[in-house]
Amino acid sequence: MGTEGPITIAVDAMGGYHAPDEVVGAVADASLRNDGDRPVFFALVGDEIALTEALFELKHNSERIQLHHAPTVVGMSERPQRAIEDRPDSSILQACRLVKTDEADAVITAGNPGVAVLASLRQFELISGVQRAALASVYPTPRVRGETDDPFSLILDVGASLRADADHLMTFALMGAAYARIVSRNKNPKVALLSNSRESTVGPPEVVGAYERLSRHETLNFYGNIEGHEIPRGLADVVVCEGFAGDIAIKILEGLSEAAFDLARSAYHSKVAWRMGLKLLSGGLKQLKQLTDFEEYGGAPLLGVDEVVILCHPRSGRKAIGNALKLAIKNVRAQLPEAISEDLGKYA
Amino acid sequence: MSTTFRHIYRWDLDKTYLRTEFETLRGLIRTALQTPEEKVNVPGVVRLLKELSRPNEDGDVYITFISGSPTQMREKLERKFALDGITPDVFVLKPTLKNLLKGRFRAIKGQIGYKLDNLLRLREEGPRAPETLFGDDAEQDAFIYSLYADLAVERVERELLFDILEEAGVYSRTRASILERFSRMRTGADVGRIFIHLDYNTAPGQFWVYGPRVVPITNYFQAALVLFSDGVLSLAPVLRVASGMIAGGEYGVTQLANSFQDLIRRRHLGYSAIDRFGEDMEHFQKGPDKAGVRLPDEFFDRLLARVRALAPRSTDPVRNWEGPPDYLAVLKADQKLRKNIDGDPGLFGP
To answer: Which of B199, B265, B302 has the highest number of chain A CBs within 10 A, making it the mutation to test binding with A?
Structure first.
């Protein structure tokens, strides 16, 4: 991955509940955007006929899109190990392979997350000093941070693996801080551990162990433990947890936003007075929806591997995939894996 | 006319040959004020036209331009052609001022009556040879050219043509002229390819209604490849078009390789043509004479890689064509679309 020359993003066009149409739609849109000093190309991986048919009906710039035929697709409920062994020619594996062979600089998929993680771990190397990769997701908070007044906090791991020991949590903290420094341009991010208590001695042994190590770290801005209800308040810029807890936490945050708008919608139809009130608030509500809608921030980077990997929510539509593409381009431009590796060397 | 012509190339000008912006008032003014030296060509177009015009033993080529630009632009545009080294046999411009003074406002914007009348006139007055047409997606070139091609093979009858012209809002005088020319039209299946330059990146599927004769292209390397496939061009001219586009700085090998693959996927370039392309390329690379071609070393490999990335020699059609278009229905749908765009009530509308 160089700092100059064109960027190519490999896209698993068959991954996700709305593939291939929504994925191809997002790539078609992206192919029409001006990409500044480094031209960006897209490699759509999937069934040739289905992808050609989808592109046929979309405004796009064919000079910036190439297709890689993949005859098979991994289903959403398939077991990762088995799927990878049975279908080496699947779209998700072929997309990863394009990065491995330097034909692409990043990979995006909204397909089976377990397969995406396992495929990445098999095809790519872990960054030196990283024992386990972590999926990082952003979520909106009332607090802003960094040079760009970024309203998003980062939470990791949100499901690259289920369990993590103290060493893993320690690495997640360092990688999360590095990501916040590089991508959110937050020079000194506050890092917290997610636990069931603010007390350092309460919680599972791995969290207690990680607390002890993080609190002794000389350069990391360690905030301490935070509890679940404190995540949306944005007390920390980076929240560290094991994958099982993180996955549940991030889905609760997504669900809360959706439930709030469902309630508003139902209130709108219930009473004229509420309808008028919501009409008056509609501008603010629209902004709030933009901030809290997962489609607005698209994908979760897999941190710890030596390539840029972005996993999208399987429910992702055109907008979410489009934002994931922007994130991938941003991470390639920032040479994220190299930058994290450098940061880990400096702060570990 | 004693000269033997091997081929006729009929061109549109703005957005097909020249990069023109007429969507905004600013763009229109800029276009009107541009000197010939400031006018910019669509990449590859001049090289392609020169390659198509190269004299050979089969005869000359006949080049016509029918442009929607006003007649007042003639001097500037002819000077631009001279700068490019292009000499059209016929160059038709639109009598916009005359239309304005006569209150023929529909004729100022409308293209169907103007272009079809002139296509039929040039066919009547000009030589007979296979025809290839070039237009773009900004106006109704695909519709007009397809209709012209179908008139030539008598696939459209007089009554239907009358209805189409009426639906298109063509003034009665122009309509009468078209119908009269049609009654005298030389028939024959000599209108071949219709290339539509996708200046607006219009979805290629929108042109499928006209069938595989119409080839939407993103750039002129694609046109050169299809003409190679049709046997109109040999390999060296195709490579010279590619070479010129890369030398111009706007194109790299990746864009051209992607364009090559795009044509294969859309089945405008078949595997027999690809095989021939590969064989000719091998001879060309071994041969001593590179004939003005300067391409990066990886050019051919990248093209080949794009072919290999596709399903092995798949020839399944992406879509089946359901036959000749129902021009009246196409036109009505197009008018409806335009009305909907024009009729946007905006923020404070009803």
So the answer is: B265
